[in-house]
Amino acid sequence: MATCPVCDADVELPADPVVGELLTCDDCGCELEILALDPFKLGEAPEAEEDWGE
Amino acid sequence: MRIGLLHSLIRKDEKLLLEAFKKARCDLQMIDDRKLIMDFKSAPPIDLLLERSINHSRALHALRLFESVGVKCINRHQVATVCGDKMLTTAALAEAGVAQPDSRVAFTETSAIEAIEQMGYPVVLKPAVGSWGRLLSKVNDRDAAESILEHKTVLGSYHHSVFYIQEYIDKAGRDIRTFVIGDECIAGIYRTSKHWITNTARGAEASKCEITPEIADISLAAAAAVGGGVVAVDLLESPRGLLVNEVNYTMEFKNSIDTTGVDIPARIVDYVMREAN
């Protein structure tokens, strides 16, 4: 379990977390990014940029 | 054999690929495009690069840099170049004789208005470079055309003044997205919406599309026209038959696995491993 950096709610970690992985805080709905694994650190995911896509 | 995975954020799509690579016992090196530094002489020690960047600009440049030092890439830089620019895609499809909506390109507001009125309303204005259904305009009349063209010219960066104008196809509330890996059209979905924009990123709902010979033929032809590899082809159903709307080179598939019953990430990994050998 980790802590949402925006609202301090508990955030469940995915199986086999990797750095750069996206999560969503179920409480505030903020999109988060795993910044580090040891120690574990979450940050707000970057906003979509104009050239993001497929 | 070591595969490099070029990535930005790890979305569900990339996580599924990681799981598939793990099952395949592949030696995988993660390459974060936010930390990547290339010196034009060398690359990380990999045999093949699978590109999965979210940023089109980073993907495009990274692919060229990796290819310049001899690393095989999926997809190739040429494919990213063509698929990443709708004008180039249209040109490639036209050269290959693949059916697509009628389109025009103009570089000034005046000539764009003339082009639009040659085609007749409504038309669709799109940025030549863009994704996820963003900044699309359905232009229903002259007033709208003049306003939108002015806004694009004044408010956009220079590339928004390359006016890509496409015939509006009344597609009856849905389009088709097919997934092409190598020389096989492996799966397809319908994307249905009450809105004329039917990207799932804009709320369209996905359902399974059976791959008919007609759907497979045009999907494979479109993939070949842009250079092949691992691509998603967007098709429109029109009175004159299927038309290719666009081809995507960093395809998203996370919502299409259960819908189609096809393990798309596993198929991608199989293809990558075969190509690396």
Helix and strand topology:
The complex is a heterodimer of chains A (54) and B (277).
Chain A lengths: L1 E2 L6 E2 L10 E3 L6 E7 L2 E5 L10
Antiparallel strand pairs in A: 1-2, 3-4, 4-5
Chain B lengths: L1 E6 L4 H12 L3 E6 L15 E5 L3 H13 L3 E3 L2 H7 L2 H11 L6 E4 L2 H11 L3 E4 L10 E3 L2 H14 L7 E5 L6 E8 L2 E9 L12 E4 L4 H14 L3 E9 L2 E8 L8 H4 L3 H13 L1
Parallel strand pairs in B: 1-2, 1-3, 3-4
Antiparallel strand pairs in B: 5-8, 6-7, 6-8, 9-10, 9-12, 10-11, 12-13
Helix pairs in contact in B: 1-9, 2-3, 4-7, 5-6
Structure explained in plain terms:
The complex is a heterodimer of chains A (54) and B (277). Helices cover 0% and strands 35% of the residues of chain A. Chain A has no helices and 5 strands. In chain A, the strands form 2 sheets. A 3-stranded antiparallel beta sheet of chain A has the order 3-4-5, with no helix packed on it. Chain A is globular, with a radius of gyration of 11 Å. The model of chain A has no long low-confidence stretch (mean pLDDT 91). Chain B is of the alpha+beta class. Chain B contains 9 helices and 13 strands. The radius of gyration of chain B is 19 Å and the shape is globular.
Largest interface: A-B, 17 and 26 residues
- Kindly state the number of beta strands of chain B: 13
Helix fraction bin of chain A: under 10%
Shape category of chain A: globular
Helical residue percent of chain B?
Answer: 25-40%
Largest sheet descriptor of chain B: 5 strands, antiparallel
Instruction: Give, in order, the helices and strands of chain B.
Output: EHEEHEHHEHEEHEEEEHEEHH
Which strands sit side by side, in order, in the main sheet of chain B? 11-10-9-12-13
Alpha-beta content class of chain B: alpha+beta
Structural class of chain A: mainly beta
Low-confidence stretches of chain A: none
What is the mean predicted local confidence, pLDDT of chain A? 91
Q: How do the helices and strands follow one another from N- to C-terminus of chain A? A: EEEEE
Largest beta sheet of chain A, briefly?
3 strands, antiparallel
